[in-house]
Structures are given as structure tokens and as C-alpha cells.
Amino acid sequence: MLRKIRTILAAVVFVLITLLFLDFTGTLHCWLGWLAKIQFLPAVMALNVIVVVALVVLTLVFGRIYCSVICPLGIFQDLLARLHRKKNKYSYSEEKKWLRYPVLALFVLAGATGIGSLFQLLAPYSAFGRIATMIFQPIWKACNNLLAMAAERMDSYAFYSTDTWMRSLPVLLIAVVTLVVLFILAWRGGRTYCNTICPVGTILSFFARFSWLKVHFDVDKCKNCSLCSKNCKAACIDFKTHTVDYSRCVACGNCIDSCKFGALKYSGQTSQTNGSAPVDSSKRSFLLASAMLATGAMAQKKEKLMDGGLADIEDKVAPERQTPLTPPGSLSFQNLSTHCTGCQLCVSECPNQVLRPSGDLMHLMQPTMSYEHGYCRPECTRCSEVCPAGAIKQIDKPEKTSIQIGHAVWIKKNCVVLTDEVECGNCARHCPSGAIVMVPSDPKDEESPKVPVINEAACIGCGACEYVCPSRPFSAIYVEGHEVHRKI
Predict the structure, then answer these.
(1) Neighbour-count burial of 380, counting CB atoms closer than 10 A to its CB (0-12 exposed, 13-18 middle, 19+ buried)
(2) What share of the chain is helix, strand, coil (3-state, %, to 5)?
(3) Is the dihedral of CA 223, 225, 226, 231 positive or negative?
(4) How far is CA 315 from CA 133, 360, 372, 474, 475, in A?
(5) Euclidean distance between the first and final Cα of the chain, in Å?
(6) d(CA 387, CA 399)
(7) In 231-331, which ranges are continuous DSSP H helix?
(8) Rounded distance, CA 369 to CA 22, Å?
(9) What pLDDT digit, counting tens, does each position of 417-458 carry?
(10) Checking DSSP bridges between strand 237-238 and strand 450-454, what pairing results, if any?
(11) Sequence-ordered list of residues with C-beta below 8 angstroms from that of 76, at least 6 positions apart, any chain
């Protein structure tokens, strides 16, 4: 019963959180955003004391069920391991302290010193987010576009096509390497990654040693058949000595399910038993299910606004910005760097194709903004709504229109008004804050071609001007970021 409940809950959580990353319509985060907020590392970065305490208490009661029921990377490892159909494929191995604790120390050091790329590379939730966003979502979008093409031929609008493009080649390569490493480790040893590399698993292992409910041997019933060890994906059961390494046990229930003699029990007893009375597993199963389902919360639903008939604009080359652009609500470049876990959820949820992973080595995988595929609409606050780590503080629509993340800069030599001698004014017409006006290029001649003039005090850095500028390959107007955001 324990294994069935764990499998059902894990399957539900994994499907829902994967859909959260795959969704490009902007609707699922309203219902499923809480799944990102109950992940251990984002909750720590967001200083969400309630979630952190709840997960610690959950571990102290049930053991490391977080790793087998809530963590998407842990569940993903189980799925990869199941591809190996060979039964009884595992064996007991000693805890690799020489690897676990140095990796944890390196993880903490990277977070304390601001080496974001290394910190995010080791974070389990972020690793799954990269795989889901950079590998699974493009495939999901491609399938959607095929359905949209088929629906169009049948005069149906049940599906609509969406752009699929490479946001970052380095991050894509990291996601592919991570997936390959996970596959090899899970195929060969089940939870090897979880119990040797994952820093969250190591942190929770300190509490799991003292959990109330644990797997115990009944020595009188045990026949030393070794089936429990051969089916333990955490390699933590030594059937010869009838001991379990609780720091690595993820309470999956595989050992109990495989034991043919009823020699293993998941109970609160602290010693080996001699044929004691059976434990009421139905009550414990109900308690386990209740604890898992009690973590849900609903977010307020937001609408998705579509473009109002603007023609498709070809991709442009991103300008070299002196200061990276960070989303409204991130407060500053430093605040984003300090709190971001690089999970890519904001990138996958951005409806305007503005966010993408940074290519900077020190801040690799953290979100940055660029306006080749869209601009940051003043009415859109989705990235602040989905961020589970507090790197992007939640803001409302009126507040966003007063946040200045950067200011527009005009490049005279690129402007088509002067290079091609044509009338334009796209930047001024589409500026939502009215920060751009067109004035004669020659102050003495009112009939001279009109060029843009920017009021930096009114510009919020949304990038509408940069996006709609017809100049190719570089825009004649682009947005330069501010290290610290301002209120106007």
C-alpha cells in the first residue's frame, strides 16, 4: 500500500509540475504555481519559512519522501531507472561520504560567494527546470504547431501555432549533458545522483536519520534472500546485517513490496522485532496521503493578452548592453543574482518571448531580457507571479508601469529615417509610456525628416521601441539596463 500511494502521488506531482514548465498559454501557472513554491531550495531562497519548516517536519516524520514524491528530479530518476526492465538489479553499497559532503560544501560556498552558475548547476529543481524548458518544451511546442497546422486545414481554431527558437545554446548543452548523466546513473544505479551529488538530498539526510517512521527488519521472519537489497534503488539496505541507511532511504516502499516473507515494515518502532503484531497500514497510508495533499495553494488567475494584429517582424541581432536587463520586480541585478536558482520557470512562462537564460559565465542560466522576439508588456506580470525563489518579487500591473528597469538609447547611424530617407516613427507610436517623441532632424527646418528624442525620466525600459524598430540587423534604438531599478 505504501508503494502504491507513493507511486500515485509522485506521478501526479511529476505530471503537473512538468506541465507547469511546458505550458506556453499562461493559464496553468494560476493553478499549479504552488508546486514550484513547495520545492526545498526555492523556498529557502525565498525565505519561505512555512514551507521550509513543513518540509523539515515532513522529513522528521516520514523520512525523505520529499525526494521520492515532491522533487521532480527525484521522480524523474525513478522514471529513467524503470526503463531498465531488469529486476533485482541493485545491491547495497556504502555511503559515499567522500563525495556527498564535499559537494554540499561546494554548493554552500558557491551560494555564499555568488557563483550562481555553479550553485544552479547542482540544484536539483533547477536541473529539472533546465531539462523541461530547454528540451521538453520545444518538443511540446512543435507537436502543438503540428496540431495547429492540421486544425487550420479543417477550418478549426482549437490550436494556434507558437514560435519555437533556441533561447541559449550553452544552457541547452548543459541541459542535454545533465539529462545524459542522469540517464546513465539512473540506469546503472537508480538513485546514485540523488544520494551522492544532490545537495538537497544531503541536507535532508541529516533530518531523515531521526525520522519517526522508518523501514525496520523483523529478524525472525527474514530469510536473507537479498530481494530487499536488490530492489532498493537507494542502495541503502544491507540484508546481511539487517540494517538500513536512513540517510539515503527515500521511503519508496520497493523493499517492503518485494519481501515475500513480511520481514520488513514501515513503522515508528526503533528496534528490530520478533513477530510483533501487524501495523495498521491503512491509517499510515491515509496519514501519508493527507500530508502530501495538504501542501496545495491556489494563485489568482491572470489573463493572457495577444498582439493586436501587428505584422510579423524578423529576428534581429541582440545589442551589446553594458548592464543586463532584469525583469521588473527583481529590484536589481544583484538581488536577482543572489536569489535566483536558475530553474527557468520564468523563461518558460514568459508570453512575450523576452526572457532567456544568461550567457554570462558567472550568471549562467539566470534570466536576462532581450527584445528580438517581443517586448515586456506593461500589463504582464507573469514572471513575478511564478518565481518561487523570491528573485522576482510579485508586483501588480499599476506598480509595473512605474518601475524603470532601463532607458532607451538612440543610435543615429542605424535609423532608417536618415539611412534610407523614409518616414518612420514606429518607436514613438508604440511607446506605452510616451517617452519618445518625433522632432525634425534639423531644428531650423520644420520639413526635415523627423527623428526620435527620448525622455529618459519617463522611459521604463519595456523595449517596445527596440522590438518594433525596422532597422536590421541592429535596431536604431535599444534599451540599456539599470543595475538598480527605479520608481518613476
Answers:
(1) buried
(2) 45, 10, 45
(3) negative
(4) 21, 22, 6, 10, 11
(5) 59
(6) 17
(7) 254-258, 281-293
(8) 20
(9) 999 889 999 999 999 999 999 999 988 888 899 999 999 999
(10) unpaired
(11) 14, 128, 131, 182
